């Protein structure tokens, strides 16, 4: 008998990687998908199976974390061995614009799942993973942050996730549920949403290299994040639910980097050096040097002459609209517990992550530019 998993947020970055990982392990995966006016299944299309296929290992259900009745029905019908609650309004800046909705989905949504499992008498069968976050540490009280570091959330998103964290702990203690929190630090990938900072940067650098965009406007360049690869982090989610005892784990790389340095690394991937000048809202980055051999290898010879004309141009600026009312300045995690108890180790370091994202976005942006211009010279660069 295959194990059964239910993933909420299956159309998101982590949901897609986790679904693939569990299917490879022989699971039948049920995914909760909210209705949208388009398919919105791009990240899992390679896993999708037509409803007429027998013995499917991926089955999607329409649902929403704000709808208790529908969550209870789906959990009752699917009788999952494991629930991974990954669905959330996950953008910190947007949570300041939609605080009530964020509280409902990211906070109360967790309660709805726990309560459904309890009311359906599934406590002995169903293990629950809650997608908690390093944003809980917010205005950090300790460096680096570990499981015992006090929380100090700094956004409606983080406050909603704080409720999700504690209600998971409370149901574990009150009802002996196998319910665990993964306190995951930022994790990125080629599947990362386009408005998170790393993907915004890798897309913009690719478009600048291809002549599709002149400049990118950023928010706070000085904040520091502990970035890992989402592929490594979904392995940790699975490992957490395989433990005999439920518990909470920090998942992080232990290395922190500024947004400014991430930009430098992304440009370096195409053989380009940028130099930052000025301060705060007047800070800019200028194209300083091109390693032509590397640019040709990564981007293509056809784009070099035009790009060379841009030496000395500003390619990064600051726009205060991207600042947050309250910022999280520094995150760096200590994942000793996960390394020791789960045997978890990340395979990707930041350089490998940036390379993966840049190679993917250069390819993707070339395709986009070809579709828009229909140019033959660009066609030559399709692999
Ligand atoms: P993501 O790419 O933004 O995916 C979020 C998923 O949740 C999407 O499938 C989205 O559906 C779905 N969703 C949003 N609101 C929903 C609702 N009301 N009902 C049902 N589904 C809903 O996020 P991610 O990066 O994969 O992160 C996964 C989880 O981990 C999230 O809970 C996030 O808060 C948390 N987390 C992420 C990180 C990170 O660095 N990535 C770190 C710590 C914790 P649509 O596709 O329809 O939008
Ligand atoms: O911002 C700064 C911004 O939006 C990172 C979510 O997955 O990880 C994510 O939350 C930093 C912040 O991620 C821009 O101010 C500068 O300091 O990529 P982000 P996040 O807010 O850390 C946590 C762990 C989660 O749980 C969340 O779900 O980058 N920054 N300039 C910018 N950020 C964005 N988005 N855009 C900018 O232009």
Written description of the protein model:
- This protein is an alpha/beta fold.
- The chain has helices at 13-24, 68-78, 92-97, 99-119, 156-175, 197-209, 230-241, 259-268, 292-298, 304-308, 336-342, 350-373, 376-379, and strands at 4-8, 28-33, 58-62, 82-85, 127-133, 178-184, 187-188, 216-218, 224-225, 228-229, 249-251, 257-258, 272-277, 284-290, 314-318.
- The strands form 4 sheets. The protein has a 7-stranded parallel beta sheet with strand order 3-2-1-4-5-6-11, sandwiched between helices.
- Helix 2 (68-78) packs parallel to helix 4 and helix 6 (197-209) runs parallel beside helix 8 (259-268).
- Mean pLDDT is 96; it is low at 375-383.
- The protein binds NADP nicotinamide-adenine-dinucleotide phosphate and ligand F7E.
- Residues 90, 92-93, 133-135, 185-186, 195-197, 200, 218-220, 223, 225, 259, 322, 324, 327-328 line the site of ligand F7E.
Topology:
Elements: E1 4-8, H1 13-24, E2 28-33, E3 58-62, H2 68-78, E4 82-85, H3 92-97, H4 99-119, E5 127-133, H5 156-175, E6 178-184, E7 187-188, H6 197-209, E8 216-218, E9 224-225, E10 228-229, H7 230-241, E11 249-251, E12 257-258, H8 259-268, E13 272-277, E14 284-290, H9 292-298, H10 304-308, E15 314-318, H11 336-342, H12 350-373, H13 376-379
Parallel strand pairs: 1-2, 1-4, 2-3, 4-5, 5-6, 6-11, 7-10, 8-15
Antiparallel strand pairs: 9-12, 13-14, 14-15
Bound molecules: NADP nicotinamide-adenine-dinucleotide phosphate and ligand F7E.
């Amino acid at each position: 008998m295959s194990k059964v998993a239910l993933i909420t947020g299956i159309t998101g970055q982590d949901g897609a990687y986790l679904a693939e990982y569990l299917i490879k392990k022989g699971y039948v995966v049920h995914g909760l998908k909210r209705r949208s006016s388009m398919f919105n299944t791009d990240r899992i299309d390679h896993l999708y199976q037509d409803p007429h296929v027998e013995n499917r290992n991926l089955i999607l259900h329409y649902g929403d974390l704000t709808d208790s009745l529908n969550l209870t029905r789906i959990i009752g019908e699917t009788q999952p061995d494991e629930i991974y609650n990954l669905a959330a309004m996950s953008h910190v800046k947007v949570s300041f614009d939609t605080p009530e909705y964020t509280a409902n989905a990211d906070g109360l949504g967790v309660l709805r799942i726990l309560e459904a499992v309890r009311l359906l008498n599934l406590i002995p069968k169903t293990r629950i993973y809650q997608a908690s976050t390093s944003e809980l540490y917010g205005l950090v009280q300790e460096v680096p942050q570990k499981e015992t570091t006090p929380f100090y959330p700094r956004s409606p998103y983080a406050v909603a996730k704080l409720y999700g964290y504690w209600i998971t702990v409370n149901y574990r203690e009150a009802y002996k549920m196998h319910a665990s929190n993964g306190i995951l630090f930022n994790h990125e990938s080629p599947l990362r949403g386009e408005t998170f900072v790393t993907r915004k940067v890798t897309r913009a650098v690719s478009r600048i290299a291809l002549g599709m965009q002149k400049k990118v406007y950023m928010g706070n360049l000085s904040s520091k994040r502990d970035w890992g690869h989402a592929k490594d982090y979904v392995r940790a989610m699975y490992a957490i639910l395989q433990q005999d005892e439920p518990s909470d784990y920090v998942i992080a790389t232990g290395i922190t980097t500024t947004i400014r340095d991430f930009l430098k690394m992304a440009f370096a991937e195409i053989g380009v050096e940028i130099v930052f000048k000025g301060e705060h809202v007047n800070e800019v980055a200028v194209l300083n040097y091109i390693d032509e051999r590397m640019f040709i290898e990564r981007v293509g010879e056809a784009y070099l002459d035009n790009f060379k004309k841009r030496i000395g141009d500003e390619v990064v600026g600051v726009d205060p609209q991207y600042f947050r009312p309250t910022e999280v300045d520094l995150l760096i995690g200590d994942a000793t517990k996960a390394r020791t108890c789960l045997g978890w180790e990340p395979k990707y370091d930041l350089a490998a992550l940036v390379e993966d994202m840049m190679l993917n976005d250069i390819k993707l942006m070339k395709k986009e530019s070809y579709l828009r211009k229909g140019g033959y010279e660009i066609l030559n660069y399709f692999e």
